[in-house]
Automatic annotation (TrEMBL):
Signal peptide: none
Coiled-coil blocks: none
Lineage, opening ranks: Bacteria, Pseudomonadati, Pseudomonadota, Betaproteobacteria, Burkholderiales
Source organism per UniProt: Janthinobacterium kumbetense
Domain Transglutaminase-like: 69-133
Name of the molecule in the record: Transglutaminase family protein
Matches recorded under Pfam families: Transglut_core (PF01841)
Listed InterPro entries: Papain-like_cys_pep_sf, Transglutaminase-like
Length: 199
């Protein structure tokens, strides 16, 4: 049975892959690359390394829409995942959004969602990638089929959420669009209610 990738290739409000600037950057990143994995690796590296993580760099404005992340060169992990999905979709590569629930500090509570991506590669299928940006203690990479994400899931209350979403979760949009500064977003990070794991 074939997979319907239409939702994972579509342009939308926050993953605006049809925006002229997004399309131009996607084309530039793909130039000379052979195959979907090579193109995806370039898009991943660009978002991970060239777009500043809002909190790491304490950089405003708060961005959400992919084209705004590209324009301002900054975004929280969620916003960076919107841009990466848009660049991949603009290159005809199916991409979605994934989330982890992680402790905000070293250990929780509180907890918050962390945003990352899944890309569909012809050779490997769905493959999760995390372009939040590396720093000491964080070394995310594009090495399919092996996942190398930014953060491990450690505590019982933390989770790898299994869904691959075609659009951002509402609470993520609310956090990014409802607060004026990166500091305000940090005080209102999105989360999800989790049922206890069976012991």
């Amino acid at each position: 049975m074939s997979i319907d990738f239409s939702l994972y290739l579509a342009s939308s409000t926050y993953i605006d892959s049809d925006h002229p600037a997004v399309r131009a950057r996607a084309a530039a990143l793909a130039e000379g690359a052979v195959g979907d994995a090579a193109i995806a690796a370039r898009c991943f590296a660009f978002v991970r390394d060239e777009v500043a993580h809002s909190w790491d760099y304490q950089r405003n404005p708060v961005t959400c829409r992919a084209s705004d992340v590209l324009q301002h060169g900054t975004g929280y992990c969620y916003a960076k995942s919107h841009l990466l999905a848009a660049l991949l979709r603009a290159n005809g590569i199916p991409a979605g959004l994934c989330y982890q629930r992680l402790a905000v500090g070293e250990v929780g509570p509180p907890f918050c969602l962390h945003g990352l991506n899944a890309v569909y590669l012809q050779e490997f299928g769905w493959y999760r990638i995390d372009a939040r940006g590396n720093k000491p203690g964080v070394d995310a990479a594009f090495v399919p089929p092996r996942e190398q994400l930014a953060f491990p899931v450690l505590a019982p209350e933390e989770r790898d959420l299994p869904e691959i979403w075609p659009a951002p979760l509402p609470q993520v949009i609310a956090s990014l669009t409802g607060h004026a500064t990166v500091q305000e977003v940090a005080a209102h990070l999105p989360d999800v209610e989790m049922l206890p794991l069976n012991k």
